[in-house]
Amino acid sequence: MKVVLDEGVPRQMAKALVEKGFEASRFPPEWIGTRNGDLIEALGRLGIDILLTNDKNIANQQGLRGRTVSVVALQQNKRSAIFERVDDIVDTLREARPGQHIMMGWDGRRTSTRTIDGEEVREDLHPIPRFEA
């Protein structure tokens, strides 16, 4: 599974994901400032499966319907909080499906949003422990 870390996600996360079996790379510097819609489109063309981001609005701003890319959004970018939860992040990445947006909340809730037959469907995935501040 190919994952790109958005510019707000700690860059060391790429190494942690590689160690867990993902093809993970940091956000290329030349993409900084790219509009979200253009970014999602480019990721799809490059065969990227997942964008790991802390931009909780990216999927709302740019619908993922019909896209091959999924978006997993962390509600924080605090390095210590994220690295304590690598296994939960990995589990969430493995659950992600094309065109799906998964929000990982501080409170441990993971909410999936995707479009099925033209309708937006939201569902709660099994929760994980709360992130520590």
The count of strands amounts to: 7
CATH architecture: 3-Layer(aba) Sandwich
> Structural class of the secondary structure composition?
alpha/beta
- Write out the strand line-up for the largest beta sheet, numbering strands in chain order: 2-1-3-4-5-6-7
- What CATH calls the topology is Rossmann fold
User: What number is the mean pLDDT?
Assistant: 88
Instruction: Tell me the fraction of residues in β-strands, as a range.
Output: 25-35%
Euclidean distance between termini CA atoms = 29 Å
Q: What characterizes the major β-sheet?
A: 7 strands, mixed
Low-confidence stretches: none
3D architecture notes:
- With 133 residues, the chain is an alpha/beta fold.
- It has a single domain, classed as Rossmann fold, CATH 3.40.50.
- The protein is 27% helix and 26% strand.
- The protein is built from 5 helices and 7 strands; from the N terminus they run βαβαβαβααβββ.
- The chain has helices at residues 13-19, 36-45, 58-61, 79-83, 86-95, and strands at 2-5, 23-25, 50-53, 70-74, 101-104, 110-116, 119-125.
- A 7-stranded mixed β-sheet has the order 2-1-3-4-5-6-7, with helices on one face.
- It is globular, with a radius of gyration of 14 Å.
- The N and C termini lie far apart (29 Å).
- The model has no long low-confidence stretch (mean pLDDT 88).
